Amino acid sequence: MEPKLPEENIIRRYLLGALREPELDAIEQKLLSSEELSQTAGLIEDEIIEQYLDGDLDERDKRAVEGHFLRPPAHRKKLRFARMLRHHFEHGSAGSGTVGDGVLVSRVPPRSLWNYGAALAAVPLAAVCLYLVVAQQDLKKDVAESHKAQAVLQAELNKEHESSAGLRQELQALQTTSVVSMDLRPGLSRSTGFVPQAIIQPSTRVLKLDVLLPNSTWVSVRVRLLDRNTRYEVWSKSGLKPVPGAARLLFDMPVQGIRTGPYELIVSPVPEHGAQVSYSFDARVIQ
Fold this sequence. Notes:
By secondary structure, the protein is of the alpha+beta class. Helix content is about 45%, strand content about 25%.
């Protein structure tokens, strides 16, 4: 065997994952820039594969082949092709034998030399066919993986589309939901000739109320909404907190259960001490 050049040894160590900085960067740059070195690397790859299949590697190099060299798909493809080609020659050449020191001789009769020559000429064709079989298998695998990746991507796109549709629906709901604001002052009644009016559209969900309290000493209040005609309690809530330092109560009241007609809002302190304030307003519900 011819002695290896220093650069060939470096390429072999590189292929087996035995190089470290700065040799690693240096050989990678050379392989990218030199076509001759790239071809040399291909020959060394073939050599490593042949030694691996022959069992000629020591334990350290064998682990390097299995743990590092065979990581790239191109190297695994080379290994599969070499293994199939060996299988073809080992099990598909029944018409030949060896004598003496392993010299290959023909078992084909002289009258069949023409056919035997044709068979020898067919060997490269068989190798090409084997390569095409391996390439077709790899192509099918790549196509299957591509289809799988496309399916995953499509599922993610569908999920994103559903999420976007849900956000659009929520945004549309917020845009079409109106809020009615209303200021209530104590003492306003029909006898004074002025009562606030809340116009409730089909999209209205909330009445935003700003209620003026009789004094700023209330810490917690209870609010009840009564139908003035039936005295039916439509809604109530306790524990509302006035604006700190001001005699104002800001809160949202749902419009559910409110119909067209007069209403009365009863506000009292918690705990109750008999004091309560009444606020009148009219509701007009537009169907």
